[in-house]
Design goal:
alpha+beta, Alpha-D-Glucose-1,6-Bisphosphate, Chain A, domain 4, Multidrug-efflux Transporter 1 Regulator Bmrr, Chain A, 2 domains, nine-stranded antiparallel β-sheet, seven-stranded antiparallel β-sheet, 16 strands, 30% helix
Length: 338
Amino acid sequence: MRALKTILVILGALVGLWLLLSLLGPKESYVERSTVIKASPNTVYEYIRFLKNQDEWGVWYKMDPDAKYELTGEDGKVGAKRSWDGQVVKQGAQTIVALDQDKSVKSDLEFGPMVGHGSLDLEPRGDSTAVKWSMRMDVPFIFRAAAMFMSADEGAKDFEDGLANLKTICEAKQADVDKAHVPSYAVTTSEWPAKLYVGKREVVKWADMQAFFGKHFGANMAAAGKAGVQPAGAPSGVYFEWNEKDQTADMIAGIPVAMDAKGKLKGLDLYETPASKALTIDYYGGYNGMMAPHMAMDRYIKENNLTHHANVIEEYLTDPGQEPDSTKWLTRITYLVK
């Protein structure tokens, strides 16, 4: 009898300790991981809003491929619910509770007695998308004592692996989209001789580029003329970097001049493009349509295993002041490659 009383006292003490720890334990847990995917928010959103696609990018399906799944409602819409029952993943369900086009997918999850609130949030980053995957779990009272001894990042590895899968899949999908929507342009190959330009290298915001060209083309032309040097070609944009994130261009609004004119141009800002193999596209159209030939050139370089280096040069061969029809404006786009 004394032994039984001792056991009951110990059990009571343990239960009391468990209840005390449960009172002190966390009421919820939170995990968050992020990545950057080189794809548009729309490409990512149109993939992640479908519950079925988690079989491809999520890690839990691969843990228990023999689990049974059931979908109710219309997948990809608010209210769609997917339930599962398996040996490893046990029983649970996920329900889409909110969709914000190209911005977020929110869902509620059930893991037995546990209830979670998940969110996939998208933020545009130039030609990429920052993806944040977070999960907040409500911890039932009886489990709060155990939660005190668990890592705050419990399950974070699954999030990291899932986002890595999502990145691979969505970047491949974006490449297919880009390829399908990039018009074809004739690309010619030539040897580009070293060329000299009058112009100062600056980092310019995209929104300020028109004003930048207007100011510096005239000023550089006048400076060369004052030195007794005539242009050796059309006014040109010489680019070193096109920064999608900051929406800036590292560039020169340059006037090409003869290589032997250096002696007459002392005191002026000069830049010499290197001699190189070159790829060229002749583009006819307004300047707001210039992205398409650049995308076509980028695709050509990748498909032919070439490497772009040094500069991109845009030669503005048509003067808009002389030709009002923008469909007749000729811009010669040249990439230096190796």
